[in-house]
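Researcher: For the annotation table, I need structure tokens for DNA-binding transcriptional regulator NtrC. Please keep the output clean. Sequence:
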Amino acid sequence: MHEPIRVLVADDDRAIRLVVKQSLEACGCTVTLAENSTQLWEHVLAAGFDVLVSDVLMPDGNGLDLLPKIRDLHPHMPVIVMSAQNTLMTAVTATQRGAFDYLAKPFDLDELERTVLSAAREARQNAVQTPKDEAQADIPLIGRSAVMQDLYRAMARLMPTDLTVTITGESGTGKELVARALHDMGHRHKGPFVAVNMAAIPKDLIESDLFGHERGAFTGANSRAVGRFEQANSGTLFLDEIGDMPIEAQTRLLRVLQEGEFTMVGGSTPIRADVRIIAATNKDLKALVAAHRFREDLYYRLNVVPLTIPPLRARLSDIPDLLAHFNNRAVAQGLPGKRFDGKALSRLCAYSWPGNVRELENLVQRLCVLAPEETIGESTIAQILDAEPESENGTGTWRESGLKDAVEHHLTRYFKAHGTHLPPSGLHARVVREVERPLIELALKATKGNQLKSAELLGLNRNTLRKKIRELGIHVARNGF
């Protein structure tokens, strides 16, 4: 690009305006500033810009409300939305009203620069597509953490498409909620959403359940039965626990993905499959492929766009919002609401949540039904989590019984949280990782951040320790943490 990129930046925070201005000017842009919606609209009317970077909430209005008007006036000018209101609804609304991208505050300036340059390049190539202008309000996903922002942004880009998606996540993370949101906010929202759990259907009935059967196809097939693919026509078919699908059914599913049609069991007439397929699993599909338990060609057909839902332990900052959400839901069901004191909240945030969000939801429901007190304290939380609260000196009865018993105690709860189902594969690596991280952190703390002494204490090579610190994302500071 030979001409400088003209960028309009609108934000009511002077510090943010100046930092963004300096960053963009350093990469060759010319920047104009606006401190409210009125100034933003005046600049849009008065001059042409290559890119608009705008905050959502400003003193005199909502920046998202201006997006349709801006798109009408300058249909090829990309708009990048910044917001501290880091919810899926914000990301989706921004995308649906015509935003090129959505950046959650606080954002990385390098990411902003890359996004602005990419937006300007696409605009000058006349490759900006006009998104749909339809919004819906009831989004069941809760969380403002950075990992959830990444998920929201990916979902917002997928909603206008029919791309096949594979959602990966541990049990209880909300894979079906993500699939439903992709359907409800997509252009197929008027069609049916049909969910099928592969692990819950007897293997010899899966093909009939998915594709239907003709009369006389097998013993007991006294009439024609419509399968899930036909039920989901013009809508979305959600295939949960796809890793449990038998090889024979995988072959039939592959044909649907390749040719867009299927035949009923016992039938010969092809039926057109007008469905979007979203698959989900808590297993490592690549490992299943390597073990010849999952077709490699089907894996690549399903994994067009992979989405990973983080476990709750990776987004502990979302727990207060989740507590409020589940508490409000309980109140709406006629149950007494609860409050959580600071120590209770700290205890919840220190727990590893093997059952993820589902386990937290169950805990809130149990408290609303059984706990007599209005404000929940740490002792009540400890009793529910089947663990004694630590004393001030950091000891507790389970700790005194030894590390082996503590690990066994935790893993027993972990297996119980999954009920009759097995936990996700890769358990050994996850357990080792969870033990390894605090071990290295405590060694570094004890040696005041001295990696040479920490390596000696742990019995590791110094380079090995450095590699583990990098892989585990451990922050190292001299003189301790």
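Researcher: And a one-line annotation?
Model: The CA atoms of residues 336 and 474 lie 41 Å apart.
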